[in-house]
Amino acid sequence: MDIDIVKDVDQPLGYNESEKDASATCVAEESAYQYPALFTSKTLLELCSSSWSRSQKAQDDIQPYLRGCKWSPDGTCCLSVVNNDGVHLTELPRDLYSNSPAPNRTIDILDSIVHIKEAGLVYDYCWYPGMNSNLPESCCWITTKQNSPIQMWDAFDGSLRCTYRGFNAVDEMEPALSVTFSQEGSRIIAGYKKVIRTFDVDRPGRDFAEHKLGSPATCFATDSNLLAVGSWNSTINLYNVNEMGTYKSIGKMHGHSGGVTHMKFTPDGIRLVSGARKDHRLLIWDIRYYRRPLNILTRAVNTNQRVYFDISPCGKYLITGGTDGVLKVWDVDQVDWKNSLETNEENSDDATYKFALHNDCCNSISIHPLRPILATGSGQFHFRDPMTGLEGADVSLQSNGMAIDNITNEVDTDENDLRYSCEAENSLVFWWIGDIVTEENVLTANVDS
């Protein structure tokens, strides 16, 4: 099964010498684009929201909480994964494509324009890096889930385009633990328990190149020809990838106390930020001197769940969520998180801004690629309290003739442990993090003009 992916949008068929000047002008206009300032008003404005709740007939272990959200490369829509409910695609309202929203703007309720019901657990997902809504053939993403191959989905109608299947030594198909595209979008890099497999995007099926690993590849970060591979054994391997897809090891980084779950390069490609499960630290690495972390930032991560963070396209802000529902922001102009830190400052909390956005775990963070808009997702699996046998507010029982409130009061429980909390919040929210235009601002602008 063949698929059509646009390889080079800048030089289409029929490109000739007479079009060079026009092309150079377009490139100059694109390079002149300046990313808008963020957090200038030191407040967040809620724009849109969507939520998921468990059906009354569903079993206790069926909890539809968010497990990640990612803006499309062109910024027109947001892709989110919901536990036990598959993949949802939501569009950005058209009025947010330009200008700043008014403070009294009505909050939109987001509806999924595409919903792919996935039966298994979705391990990882990734947009095609050249995605452009004006080119339907480029609008797609890939997912990898439990007991399934890598699947490519169409972003317009949610249809399955093709699959990429990895087989082990005994010819058994095995699912990938993590997936990503190469930066130019010509290859799919998939991490398995003991190998990395590279697929050609134009050749779906079971044709792949293989590179052996000593530990599972649980997450990736790419920049140019660099590939960082995180593992459950708390290490990060750094590779140089040539044009043929061959991996050359550069070094290994140690520092996390749990399995690495998310990583991202800064826009300059010099530094790498990494986070891990049950590890309250975000480690900043300088890949030129990777023997020890360059800087250490703190956040709340009390579970094995993947808690995402993001770096603004301008490279100035680092934003992360946490299991306490608090959004933390580091501004490089106020907190120089890109430079070295003394070891005795490891436990200090020097975040520039803090926003208590959610009552539940804030596990998903994604910054819009063009506009000052932030997408956040909340939710986690809520266990039954082993002391009371109750889970959240969904259980309305009485035990031995005693009211639930009395049982809860008699048992000394940790109120800060959101895993047993009745405050379950499974939502996707868009926030405005740029300048907020008020009537005073408009009047001032008119007078000045």
Automatic annotation (TrEMBL):
Pfam families: WD40. WD repeats lie at residues 253-288, 312-333. SUPFAM superfamilies: WD40 repeat-like (SSF50978). The keyword Nucleus does not apply. Keywords: Repeat, WD repeat. InterPro entries: SWT21/TCAB1_mRNA_Telomere, WD40/YVTN_repeat-like_dom_sf, WD40_repeat_CS, WD40_repeat_dom_sf, WD40_rpt. PROSITE patterns: WD_REPEATS_1, WD_REPEATS_2, WD_REPEATS_REGION. The keyword Repeat applies. Belongs to the TCAB1 family. This is WD repeat-containing protein 79. It comes from Chilo suppressalis.
